[in-house]
Amino acid sequence: MFMETHRFEYSIQSMANVLGVSRSGFYQFLKRSKNELEKYNPELVEFIRETWLTSRKNYGLVRLLREVKKVYSIYGARTVRKVMKLCEIQGKQEKRFRIATTDSNHGNRVAPDLVQRNFKPNQKNRIWVSDITFLRSSFGWIYLCVILDLYSRKVVGWSISNSNDSKLVCTALSKAIECRNPPKGLVFHSDRGSNYCSYETRRYLLNNKLRRSNSRKGNCWDNAVAESFFGSLKREMEYNYFYKIQEAEELIFDHIEVYYNRHRSHSSLDFVSPVQFEVNAA
Predict the structure, then answer these.
(1) PANTHER family in the record, alphabetically (predicted)?
(2) In DSSP terms, which residues pair with 133 in a beta bridge?
(3) How far apart, in whole angstroms, are the C-alpha atoms of residue 71 and residue 271?
């Protein structure tokens, strides 16, 4: 309820006037909600609240239920849904915002698709996937390139820049190589954009003995994992636009290195984080 959420920001009377409700009705609502909530295990209620806050208010019913089941196996979706409703907890909804970043109208060499939508390699450092997206700023667009290990969905390298060019990709690759020390022959998969197919990027991959793989033309599903990552990032990171690139870098570092890699659960990883998935598999 809006009034309960903002009761410490605005006076009850002013909100009641704007919303066309009575103060007494609001307090009756609070009393009913409190009485209803007291019917449930207080430890469960607190666990759901804390888990939701730890997820940065991102988790909805599915992920909260999975976390509850790890500790309180007797509770089901109906109970968790009711507690969420009484506590006014809800996950973030997907934003339908996307700008195409792929410039495939170039004369550079395009590699064959070595992945063929096989998004489940049996070991880490076998296939990396990469993509680039735009982020709004007060001075134009900021470009973010990420590289994920397809095995664990962990972000192993990323870079941001004011320019969408080969250097953006090579900087992310440099960080990924330093972080993972990949074996010879690792597949680096991306769309067929000009910065991925440029001479500079091709040379960098060749020098590091990595194999290049490109999606088929006009088929975004061939790079669905990287596309999905950006959908989650824009939904969960909470920003309108950045005032300077340093601000963007700090927020992206926090989201990727602190939250996403180490804490955010994945349905494709049996609802554990990328780091935990790799630890469990070691």
Answers:
(1) TRANSPOSASE INSF FOR INSERTION SEQUENCE IS3B-RELATED, TRANSPOSASE INSO FOR INSERTION SEQUENCE ELEMENT IS911B-RELATED
(2) 144
(3) 14
Q: Which long-range contacts (CB under 8 A, 24 or more apart) does 49-54 make?
A: 49/87, 49/89, 52/84, 52/89, 54/263
* Domain range 127-281, CATH architecture: 2-Layer Sandwich (3.30)
- Report pLDDT digits (tens) over 119-177: 889 999 999 999 999 998 888 899 999 999 999 999 999 999 999 999 999 999 999 99
One-letter amino acid of 93: Q
**Residue among 233, 238, 234 nearest 264 (CA):** 233
DSSP string spanning 226-267? HHHHHHHHHHHS--S-BSSHHHHHHHHHIIIIIIITTT--BG
Specify the pTM.
0.75
CB 257 within 8 Å of CB 275: no
**Residue 93 DSSP label:** P
Buried b (16+ CB within 10 A) or exposed e, 67-89: bbeeeeeebeeebbeebbebbeb
Write out the two tokens for 10. 């605005």
* Integer Cα distance of 167 and 185 in angstroms: 22
**Other Cβ atoms closer than 10 A to 24:** 9
